[in-house]
């Protein structure tokens, strides 16, 4: 359930997470959809910025990208930002910048988008999984400790703030301190999420964000590394630009192997305009979630958890039921978009058959994969859209 006591924004703004009485509404035309699962939307300001860059011919890397890096890092409360071509390249470049070496093991969640673990492999490391907490769907610190008792090759933790809810960073950072591990936050789904007023991005050695169109803010494709560590920022900025000497003259001095993972100015322009609206959009997501929490309370689905002190930003509003597939089918018939994130845990993916711990069992993640269903929670949902979603869920359970 959403804990409305804890939803103060870290920057002091307080959200109104109440909604209208959706539970009382029963007059929705059953075929009144469609209600899409995501609805990325660009403002006039974004379009104007893009047009002005197009007119100037400033298309690739440049001052617009530097401005976006500074603004996004400031939003996260970190010293530096390094923009990238997407969230996957952000994770890969961050691991290279942190200094992951061939064969190093990194503990991450099996219940995430495959990119979380792929990035470790791309950087030459070994993803090792620990199970998740059944309520929050994020890494279970107790299971991380179990894994650490069993192996001595782990050098870092890569927790995922899944669906917009921060992982248990207090416990995970304590474990990292005890075992001298780095922490890289996968914040690709959690722009603006926070714990006790600290925004994600500020807990570990570095954090990575995705700006894919369905995310809480977008640049079309794009990503960002944020960090307080100067060495990581410098190495990441170099890595995304073919190992160029970032302190140099701007010429073609390449001091290390790197890649072209750069963001374009056009993407940065969209990102700056989206960042201006992030607080408003996250408020709308939280308001939608509060309406669903209340309306679905009496139905046989588990609604999302928001532990005390946490600020969930509802990248997804994910319910849980052992009747998941039938519920998804009913919603599809009613033109309500849904998503299953994720139907196959990473360790069960064919691409992971030969990777360490693929044969291991993570029962909590595996059960979640069978039972989760995400409902539309994006900021452009109307009151009517929410009513359509709630009615469709209610009708599914009452007409069985
Ligand atoms: C948890 C997580 N990690 C990493 C990524 C990768 O981001 P991108 O798609 O921008 O490469 C995503 C994007 O879906 C994600 O959800």
Percent of residues in helices:
25-40%
Specify the CATH homologous superfamily of the largest domain: Type I PLP-dependent aspartate aminotransferase-like (Major domain)
User: Total number of β-strand segments?
Assistant: 12
> β content, as a range?
5-15%
What is the third-level CATH name, the topology of the largest domain? Answer: Aspartate Aminotransferase, domain 2
Taken together, the total number of domains comes to: 2
Largest sheet: 7 strands, mixed
Mean pLDDT equals 91
Distinct ligands: pyridoxal-5'-phosphate
What is the general shape? globular
Tell me what the CATH architecture of the largest domain is: 3-Layer(aba) Sandwich
Low-confidence stretches: 1-7, 11-27
- The first-to-last residue Cα distance is 25 Å
What Rg is obtained from the alpha carbons, in whole angstroms? 21 Å
Sheet/helix structural class: alpha/beta
SSE string: HHEHEHEHEHEEEEEHHEEHHEH
Helix count, DSSP H or I runs of 4 or more residues = 11
- CATH top level label of the largest domain: Alpha Beta
In the sheet with the most strands, the strands line up as: 1-9-8-5-4-2-3
Molecular structure report:
This is Glutamine--scyllo-inositol transaminase. By secondary structure, this protein is α/β, with parallel strands linked by helices. It folds into two domains: 157 residues, Aspartate Aminotransferase, domain 1, CATH 3.90.1150; 230 residues, Aspartate Aminotransferase, domain 2 (3-Layer(aba) Sandwich), CATH 3.40.640. The chain is 36% helix and 12% strand. The strands form three sheets. The protein has a seven-stranded mixed β-sheet, sandwiched between helices. It has a three-stranded antiparallel β-sheet with strand order 7-6-10, with no helix packed on it. Helix 9 crosses helix 11. The N terminus is likely disordered. Bound molecules: pyridoxal-5'-phosphate.
């Amino acid at each position: 359930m959403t804990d409305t006591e804890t939803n103060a924004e870290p920057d002091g703004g307080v959200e109104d997470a109440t909604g209208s009485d959706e539970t009382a509404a029963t007059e929705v035309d059953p075929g009144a959809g469609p209600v899409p699962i995501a609805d990325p939307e660009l403002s006039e300001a974004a379009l104007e910025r893009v047009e002005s860059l197009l007119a100037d011919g400033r298309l690739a890397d440049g001052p617009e990208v530097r401005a976006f890096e500074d603004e996004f890092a400031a939003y996260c409360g970190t010293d530096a930002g390094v923009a990238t071509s997407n969230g996957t390249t952000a994770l890969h470049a961050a691991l290279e910048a942190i200094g992951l070496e061939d064969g190093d093991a990194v503990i991450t969640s099996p219940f995430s988008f495959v990119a979380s673990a792929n990035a470790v492999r791309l950087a030459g490391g070994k993803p090792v999984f620990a199970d998740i907490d059944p309520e929050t769907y994020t890494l279970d610190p107790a299971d991380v400790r179990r894994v650490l008792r069993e192996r001595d090759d782990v050098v870092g933790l890569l927790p995922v703030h899944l669906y917009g809810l921060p992982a248990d960073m207090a416990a995970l950072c304590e474990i990292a301190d005890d075992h001298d591990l780095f922490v890289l936050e996968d914040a690709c789904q959690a722009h603006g999420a926070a714990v006790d007023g600290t925004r994600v991005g500020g807990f570990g050695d570095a954090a990575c964000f995705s700006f894919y169109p369905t995310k809480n803010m977008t640049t079309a494709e794009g990503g960002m590394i944020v960090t307080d560590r100067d060495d990581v920022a410098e190495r990441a900025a170099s890595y995304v630009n073919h190992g160029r000497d970032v302190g140099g003259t701007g010429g073609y001095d390449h001091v290390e192997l790197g890649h072209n993972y750069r963001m374009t100015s056009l993407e940065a322009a969209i990102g700056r305009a989206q960042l201006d609206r992030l607080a408003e959009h996250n408020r709308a997501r939280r308001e939608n979630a509060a309406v669903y929490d209340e309306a679905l309370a009496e139905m046989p689905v588990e609604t999302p958890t928001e532990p005390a002190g946490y600020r969930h930003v509802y990248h997804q509003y994910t319910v849980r039921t052992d009747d998941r597939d039938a519920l998804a089918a009913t919603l599809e018939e009613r033109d309500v978009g849904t998503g299953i994130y994720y139907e196959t845990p990473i360790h069960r993916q064919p691409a992971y058959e030969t990777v360490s711990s693929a044969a291991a069992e993570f029962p909590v993640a595996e059960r979640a994969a069978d039972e989760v269903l995400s409902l539309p929670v994006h900021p452009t949902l109307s009151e009517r859209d929410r009513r359509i979603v709630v009615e469709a869920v209610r009708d599914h359970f009452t007409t069985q």
